[in-house]
Design brief:
This protein has about 400 residues and is α/β, with parallel strands linked by helices. Helix content is about 40%, strand content about 20%. The strands form four sheets. Strands 7-8-15-12-13-14 form a six-stranded mixed sheet, sandwiched between helices. Helix 1 packs across helix 2 (about 50-60), helix 4 (about 135-150) packs across helix 5 (about 165-175) and helix 4 (about 135-150) crosses helix 8. The structure holds pyridoxal-5'-phosphate (PLP).
């Protein structure tokens, strides 16, 4: 007999780290369901608790359970309330600015004229439609705080290394939940960031170096010294998890509803959280029939929000992209302008890098006809300084 019970009602015996259950999650996604139910007695798990935890991290509403002596059966993910957590509020009335974030998903997926040519159709996922930092990083700001509070209780003070967006998301969370934040920015980031972060009530520290492992370690040491919480977006698995459970799942549902069978997905990498989770989700679900292209700054170039793979990132090694494309800052800005001047939306520099990398792949002949997804992490308003410098250099 098929028995589905609400997932909160079933207690795991121990805490299971994400790394331990990656292969179980991969199997669930590739089979699109659970082969064998979790074995339960008196709400306590007796066997297959990795499956329970994998389902919890994938965000299902129900879990299939059985008693020890019963038969196994297959349950499809669609029967477990897999998509239930991303149904939006249709009339968009929210009880709080927290709900404005997670009850307002999915962020839009829009077909672009600027990048579509002939039979190549490009759809952009616009992460600027998140309320705090107008970026993809609102998702991790919310989820890292939520997970921490669930596990350890109240937060009083947060220290974090950021290139602006995670900082804005955490400062906003602090405003809503009543904790203070001290945010460490690398020297190369635009000056406007200090003002935006201060306006949200955060303390800002500029460090005269780029966002290296050393930078991140120093922030952690400061946090330990001062008794502050360092959520550390570069190492915190809540980063990968939120994108697996929401960003990738949203994209999947949106593609299904529009009948899009994407040939490839292209996106930028900073911590590598969002693109790694999207890669993991779709590579497993679609049995490697989809390509993933990751975008990084060319050697010696700085593009806010994205970094070169060799500067060290965690999740990109869990499910590898098919190709990494280098982009210069000028090319990223040219990507911003080409989208702005044809589609009328002002995207951020890392989004411009994604647009420009896609054009390079088209020019190389790598892109065949069909549908493509580009993930655009943020909006262009933060990057007026870089746009101004570009216009002055090119005498536009
Ligand atoms: N683009 C922008 C503007 C960002 O702020 C970030 C991250 O800070 C990224 C891209 C990269 O996203 P991820 O950290 O998920 O790799």
């Amino acid at each position: 007999m098929v028995l589905l019970v609400p997932i909160e009602g079933v207690r795991p015996k121990r805490k299971i780290e994400l790394k331990e259950i990656l292969s179980v999650m991969a199997e669930i996604l590739s089979k699109w369901g659970v082969d064998k139910p979790v074995v339960v007695k008196d709400n306590e798990v007796l066997d297959r608790e990795e499956v329970l935890e994998a389902l919890r991290k994938l965000g299902v509403r129900y879990v299939p359970i059985k008693r020890e002596d019963e038969q196994d059966y297959f349950t499809a993910l669609d029967h477990l309330g897999f998509y239930d957590d991303i149904k939006p509020s249709p009339l968009r009335v929210f009880n709080s600015t927290l709900e404005l974030l997670y009850k307002n998903w999915p962020t839009p997926l829009v077909r672009l004229n600027s990048l579509s040519t002939g039979k190549i159709r490009v759809w952009a996922k616009l992460e600027a439609y998140n309320p705090y930092s107008n970026s993809v990083k609102d998702r991790i700001g919310w989820y890292m705080v939520k997970r921490y509070v669930e596990e350890y209780g109240e937060i009083r003070k947060i220290y974090e290394a950021t290139s602006t967006n995670t900082g804005m998301a955490l400062a906003a969370m602090g405003a809503i939940m009543g904790f203070s934040s001290k945010l460490y920015l690398p020297a190369s980031i635009q000056k406007a960031s200090d003002i935006l972060l201060k306006a949200l009530g955060a303390e800002v520290v500029r460090k005269p170096k780029s966002l290296t492992v050393e930078f991140i370690d120093e922030v952690q040491a400061d946090a330990e010294r001062d008794g502050a919480v360092n959520l550390n977006q570069f190492e915190n698995d809540a980063n990968f998890e939120v994108h697996l459970r929401y960003t990738a799942k949203e994209l999947d549902l949106q593609m299904q509803s529009a009948g899009i069978r994407a040939k490839a997905i292209i996106g930028g990498i900073g911590t590598s959280g969002h693109l790694s989770a999207i890669t993991f989700y779709f590579k497993n679900k679609l049995h490697n029939t989809i390509k993933i292209y990751a975008v990084q700054p060319a050697p010696g170039e700085t593009i806010p929000g994205i970094r070169r793979v060799e500067t060290g990132m965690k999740w990109i090694h869990w499910s590898k992209p098919d190709r990494i494309v280098d982009v210069t800052r000028d090319e990223a800005i040219e990507g911003v302008l080409s989208v702005a001047r044809r589609d009328g939306i002002l995207i951020g520099l890392s989004s411009g890098a994604v647009a420009s990398a896609f054009k390079k792949l088209v020019e190389e002949g790598v892109v065949e006809e069909g549908d493509y997804i580009a993930v655009f992490p943020d909006h262009g308003f933060k990057y007026v300084e870089q746009l101004q410098a570009y216009f002055e250099k090119k005498r536009i």
